[in-house]
Each structure stands twice: as structure tokens, then as C-alpha cells.
Design a protein that fits this description.
With 316 residues, this protein is mainly β. The protein has helices spanning 73-77, 216-221; strands at residues 37-40, 66-69, 81-83, 88-94, 114-119, 124-131, 143-144, 149-152, 163-170, 173-175, 203-210, 235-244, 249-256, 259-267, 272-281, 291-301, 304-315. Strands 1, 2, 4, 5, 6, 7, 9 and 10 form an 8-stranded antiparallel beta sheet that branches.
């Protein structure tokens, strides 16, 4: 997340070659809806509110780019490549900023964290922020093709979750690649993507079993289900959500060998970028019955299922 991107990075220069009409390829080696998601879009609301290009609220006030996020720090640690979205020349870069959750510390103007700026033909520029420390793989002045590896998704700068923040500009003006002509009617077909990423208005990031209610830090780290329940422990199911709206709810259901163990609807009373809910039961006298247990977590919106994810556990 970033409200004001760094004004400049280390400078470099080289000639640009005229190209086909400007367009973008998806800049992260991940599968949307499976191994990554778009957490925030550019804010089209000129006032204090926030509105993405579809006129929904998957943004925040003043956000100037597209945030492509990973479910957890564990996913980041496995290494997820960031690639150039279009051919151009590396104008500048920064590396060496630590990967850590932002908690209000002074960033000394390094809100972007480890970043790269690339100039393209006809006044276009892309900027890539929050790259993983030590992963930057290009140099100032280097000519790159669309798809050239630039680095890896990281947690540097002003961010509380691992993601790539991509900003697009033309002649210094920030442009939304999903709606390059402006906010418009909320259903404009205009796009700068070669293959436009499908819009996902929120959804589930992870579900799992645990012996106790996990912390947000454990879920962000990807370690919440490292110690699964046993027959002699509590039995807890959790779900992590992005893009929640006021009025949504999270339905957590656990079925076991003897029928339903848990059936819980957790209401969501305000919009939240990322949240989790959990439900469970204490250890039982004599232990849980041996056999298979299935956790299903459903995000409900306007009383309808937006998405369901399931996982299974065997207790012997």
C-alpha cells in the first residue's frame, strides 16, 4: 500500500524504440484467484471516499495503482517473479530495503521500498514497488522486453502484506490500465491490458484447521495451520478474506464422522481490506471421534455465496 510514490529513483538513460500501440502484460508469475489476487485498484473517487474502476470499493482514498497480492509471507518466501509489463528502459531502481510489516516506522521517503521505474515509448512509464530485498535483477539504462524478470514480490516499504504495487503514468499523469479514459460509466470496455485480469470483488484467501484461534500475524505469515488439531485438542476452523464489505458474513462449517461439529455465521460490520474469522469447539472428553473432518468456509454477500473453499483433516 502506498499513498505517495517516491518521486524518483536512481537515474539511468537509454534510447527508446517506437513500438506497437502501448499495452501491458500481467507483471507477476501467479494465477489470479488461486495463488494471488488484486487487493486494491486505483481510486477514481475525487473526494474522501474510494471507488475502483467498476464503481465498487476495492480501493482506498488516494490509491494510485494496482496492488497484486500474495496470500501470505510464506508464499512470498517461496519466490514469486515480477516481470516488466511492457518493453522499455530501466530509468532507475532501489534495492536494499528490508522486508517487514509496516507499523508506522519512519521510512525516510522510501514508501515504495525496493522499486524499479521503466520508461516506455510515447511518454509512458511503469513503476514497481515493494520488491523483495535483494531480488532486483536489472540495472539502470538496461533495455527490457515485456516479460523480462525484474525481481520478486516482497514486503519492503509502506506495506502490511506481500504484494506488487504497479503504477502506470503517461507524461507524469497517473493512468488506470483498467480504465485509461477515466472513471466513466463503471462498465467501460477500454483497457490497456493485453489480457484484462478478471475483476474479483472480494473473496477467500485461505482456510484451515488449527488447535486454537490463530492470530492475524500467524495467518499473514502462513503458519496458522502448522499445528493441526489432534483428537485430544480443540478443533478450530478459520477463513481469511479480502475485500470484505459491511453486511457480508463468513460461514464456517465443520462436518465430522458423527455429523456437524460447527456451524457458525460470523457477521462483518465494516469494510476491511483483509480479515479473518474462526470458530471452534474445545477438546472433548474421550477425544474427537476418529475419522475424516471437512471444513467449508463461505463468504456471503447479500445473502448469496460469493465464494466457498474447503479442506479436509483426518484424525486417527
Amino acid at each position: 500500500m502506498i499513498r505517495r510514490l517516491a518521486a524518483c529513483l536512481i537515474s539511468g538513460s537509454a534510447s527508446l524504440v517506437a513500438a506497437e500501440p502501448f499495452s501491458l502484460v500481467f507483471p507477476v508469475d501467479c494465477t489470479l484467484g488461486e495463488t494471488c489476487h488484486i487487493q486494491h485498484y486505483l481510486d477514481h473517487d475525487p473526494g474522501p471516499g474510494a471507488r475502483d474502476y467498476t464503481c465498487e470499493g476495492l480501493s482506498y482514498d488516494g490509491h494510485q495503482g494496482t496492488d497484486i497480492a500474495l496470500p501470505s509471507i510464506a508464499d512470498m518466501s517461496a519466490g514469486v517473479t515480477v516481470r516488466a509489463a511492457a518493453p522499455g528502459v530501466v530509468r532507475g531502481l532501489r534495492d536494499g530495503v528490508a522486508d517487514r510489516l509496516y507499523d508506522g516506522q519512519d521510512l525516510s521517503g522510501q514508501d515504495c521500498g525496493n522499486g524499479i521505474a521503466i520508461t516506455h515509448a510515447e511518454g509512458w512509464e511503469t513503476q514497481y514497488c515493494h520488491l523483495r530485498n535483494g531480488s532486483v535483477a536489472v540495472t539502470p539504462g538496461q533495455q527490457v522486453a515485456a516479460g523480462t524478470p525484474l525481481g520478486e514480490v516482497g514486503l519492503s516499504g509502506r506495506t502490511q502484506f506481500p504484494h506488487l504495487h504497479l503504477t502506470l503514468r503517461r507524461d507524469g499523469e497517473v493512468i488506470d490500465p483498467f480504465a485509461p479514459e477515466g472513471a466513466g460509466t463503471c462498465d467501460s470496455a477500454a483497457t490497456l491490458w493485453q489480457d484484462t485480469p478478471a475483476y474479483r470483488p472480494g473473496g477467500l484467501l485461505s482456510v484451515g484447521f488449527a488447535q486454537r484461534v490463530p492470530s492475524l500475524a500467524e495467518i499473514t505469515e502462513g503458519s496458522a495451520d502448522d499445528a493441526p488439531p489432534r483428537r485430544d485438542t480443540a478443533l478450530v476452523g478459520f477463513g481469511q478474506v479480502f475485500g470484505a464489505r459491511a453486511g457480508d458474513s463468513l460461514r464456517i462449517v465443520i462436518e465430522g464422522p458423527s455429523g456437524r461439529v460447527i456451524g457458525h455465521d460470523a457477521p462483518i460490520d465494516r469494510p476491511q481490506a483483509v480479515l479473518f474469522r474462526a470458530a471452534g469447539r474445545k477438546a472433548q472428553p474421550g477425544g474427537w471421534p476418529a475419522g475424516s473432518y471437512r471444513l467449508s468456509v463461505t463468504l456471503l454477500r447479500d445473502g448469496q455465496s460469493l465464494e466457498t473453499r474447503s479442506t479436509a483433516l483426518r484424525l486417527d
